[in-house]
């Protein structure tokens, strides 16, 4: 939608809201629908090609208004999570509209999804232990539980452990393994912890880490977790959106071993903040803890609108364009002997640095950000200060990449003249 | 704002957004302001009388745009929480823009505020215990902690205890005490628990319970909590908005004993969902746990707009009107000998029932809700099935009250003819 159409449609929407409010007394205060009414009113999958805006707006009255806020809010959410789950080719276990036991729920942020999964895992672990040893006092179990995540995992994972009051151990990763958690490392830590009397119960794998977009080896890690009855949660906050493209879907292989999976549709799938999409294999594991807040906004509406206005193909194009732009930036970096690429460029993130000291790279970063034309957030990889060029704006084009690179090289020249490197 | 003005202003806003997007490349990607820049740009308190819409919109460019999303989002939130805290006449301890150590933060829902307070209390308790006995193993402490709330408290309070993995005990209340927690009861439970080796650390008081809008005696309970170093959190989810009126402010007396306080501005203060406003006496107690999610929306914008478009007087008028309408409904109930009032009408909630069996009241409720003209949610008070008439829509007028009462009495007549009572 360009600016001209946005102006037109936005103003129509203002009138639609005003009409609704002016005539609200003609509506009933409570819906007259059977639970589950909504699913049959809309397709089972997102469209491949975009729907028209007129059709989308007409469906507000046809699909939503009969079910008002409740049950429409929950039902549209369940169906939208199925749509998105199918776009991602999730195993049927995770899709609510099948004979499986799983389904999806929208969280506010990935932090909440990690915590919700951890709480469900803690409940399941305590239940299993009490089932095998009913005499054991429940209060002592939690203090023996141990959870794991990569040392590259987002800080919210460690924080979830603090909130739930359980031990959270970081699994070391190596540059030579591309910062991915290896099966062997997890297996060894589990064995050591069990020998010490602890109870491993939760592992949070990351697909697309924040620092370098690294991918834990879930095809190796999943079977270990399953065998040890450890809940495997997959946090793909950033990378998850890309799995709607067949060429990136292999990155999600191993999902069949997971108990829960989450990514932020608000990060890279054109759905406005907040919309963190989470699936579980067994809905019953989550009962009582579907989410931390009890009230909820009607967040699935924005998924419905976006999926229909873009169509699956439009969304795939969007992802591909960002990855292509990242590759274009990578080529520019690689063509310049003064720079080096610090991690594989898999999606829309390019980790790079000047061949030289951390000091020279820190100074370069400061100059870049002080210019306020582009903004980079750095990271440390194996002690090296690394600049991160992330593609994340809807309107970014090739010319922005070239302009950015020109600016970066110009500032790099200045910095290199001033500082020893 | 009536529908005509809403249409006009809404369309202007659509243009403003489109203009912003069309010209976004002319803006810097990162703000050039000093932290704390925002406070001096706006008044220290909410206006008494409404500001003009033009002034509000002009301030987006003047106040927000220079600080963009960050730091404007956090800074406006802090100042808006001060504005609202001053409207409520909170003790200075809770106001960030003073020399105190406290301040406010917006949560999504009261459930999150209860949990955040509980987590902060748990941290503080563990820290205090370790300070007095450094040899004590930390893992064993949590299993000894005990939290309290009223048996009338919202289910989210019990749930917060489950999430944090601590014992949560319900304090019994009596009809003769108007369902308020009494100091003596809390004191006795604390003594018994301490004698049993437990560590009381958290009490969640409720001002305006969900079933009957009962008020715990915080002037009695607060000093007990303070003496026992128990964190007192006050959940005033519904009632809190009314404390901006001097005549209802005495309901909050005792706030000076609290460590944290929360109410839902989205419930009764014309701010759209979600916006649950929470204050703490010591900011440092919350560090690391200001909120459960890490990402955040710019929720303070809607507080800013609403406070300025209504002014404090407009907001007070809105609260008073709902209370008056509730009193009007109460008079209608009291004037009809077949009905009785089941709990004091303090604010906008009227608990009432037919003098008769629970069955007859349940049947009446079903008939009322099946009509879909008004919607009532019932509760049980001391085993009695009670109907709850809650004033909560912006556009409710006296005629709606009279129409509702006419409908209720008409259905009551039908039910009483059909059923023995």
UniProtKB/TrEMBL annotation, chains A, B:
One of its GO terms (cellular component) is cytoplasm. It comes from Oncorhynchus mykiss (Rainbow trout). Coiled coil: none annotated. Homodimer. Belongs to the group II decarboxylase family. It comes from the Eukaryota. GO terms for molecular function: aromatic-L-amino-acid decarboxylase activity; pyridoxal phosphate binding. CDD domains: DOPA_deC_like (cd06450). Keywords: Catecholamine biosynthesis, Decarboxylase, Lyase, Pyridoxal phosphate. The gene is LOC110512870. PANTHER family: AROMATIC-L-AMINO-ACID DECARBOXYLASE, GROUP II PYRIDOXAL-5-PHOSPHATE DECARBOXYLASE. Its cofactor is pyridoxal 5'-phosphate. Pathway: Catecholamine biosynthesis; dopamine biosynthesis; dopamine from L-tyrosine: step 2/2. It holds the Pfam family Pyridoxal_deC. One of its GO terms (biological process) is amino acid metabolic process. The modification N6-(pyridoxal phosphate)lysine is found at residue 267. Its EC number is 4.1.1.28. PROSITE patterns: DDC_GAD_HDC_YDC (PS00392). This is Aromatic-L-amino-acid decarboxylase. InterPro entries: Aromatic_deC, PyrdxlP-dep_de-COase, PyrdxlP-dep_Trfase, PyrdxlP-dep_Trfase_major, PyrdxlP-dep_Trfase_small, Pyridoxal-P_BS.
């Amino acid at each position: 939608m360009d600016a001209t159409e946005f102006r037109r449609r936005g103003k129509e929407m203002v009138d639609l809201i005003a009409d609704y409010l002016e005539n609200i007394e003609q509506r009933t205060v409570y819906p007259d629908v059977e639970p589950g009414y909504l699913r049959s009113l809309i397709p089972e999958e997102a469209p491949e090609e975009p729907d028209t805006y007129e059709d989308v707006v007409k469906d507000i009255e046809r699909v939503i208004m009969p079910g008002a806020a409740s049950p429409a809010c929950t039902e549209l959410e369940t169906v939208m999570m199925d749509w998105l789950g199918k776009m991602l080719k999730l195993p049927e276990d995770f899709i609510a509209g099948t004979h499986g036991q799983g389904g999806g729920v929208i969280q506010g942020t990935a932090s909440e999804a990690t915590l919700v999964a951890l709480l469900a895992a803690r409940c399941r672990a305590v239940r299993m232990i009490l089932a095998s040893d009913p005499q054991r006092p429940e209060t002592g179990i939690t203090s023996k539980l141990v959870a794991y995540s990569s040392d590259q995992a987002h800080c919210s994972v460690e924080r979830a452990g603090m909130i739930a009051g359980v031990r959270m151990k970081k699994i070391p990763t190596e540059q030579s393994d591309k910062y991915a958690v290896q099966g062997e490392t997890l297996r060894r830590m589990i064995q050591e912890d069990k020998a010490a009397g602890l109870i491993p119960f939760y592992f949070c794998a990351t697909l697309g880490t924040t620092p370098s977009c690294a991918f834990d080896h879930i095809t190796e890690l999943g079977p270990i977790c399953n065998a040890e009855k450890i809940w495997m949660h997959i946090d793909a906050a950033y990378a998850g959106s890309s799995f709607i493209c067949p060429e990136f879907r292999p990155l999600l292989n191993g999902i069949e071993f997971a108990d829960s999976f989450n990514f932020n549709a608000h990060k890279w799938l054109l759905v406005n903040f907040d919309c963190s999409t989470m699936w579980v294999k067994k809905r019953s594991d989550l009962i009582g803890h579907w989410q931390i807040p009890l009230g909820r906004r009607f967040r699935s509406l924005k998924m419905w609108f976006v999926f229909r206005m873009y169509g699956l193909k439009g969304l795939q194009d969007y992802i591909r364009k960002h990855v292509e732009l990242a590759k274009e930036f990578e080529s520019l970096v690689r063509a310049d002997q003064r720079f080096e690429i610090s991690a594989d460029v898999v999606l829309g993130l390019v980790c790079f640095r000047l061949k030289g000291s951390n000091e020279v790279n820190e100074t370069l970063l400061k100059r870049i950000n002080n210019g306020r034309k582009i903004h980079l957030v750095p990271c440390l990889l194996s002690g090296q200060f690394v600049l991160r060029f992330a593609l994340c704006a809807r309107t970014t084009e090739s010319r922005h990449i070239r302009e950015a690179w020109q600016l970066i090289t110009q500032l790099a020249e200045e910095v290199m003249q001033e500082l020893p490197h």
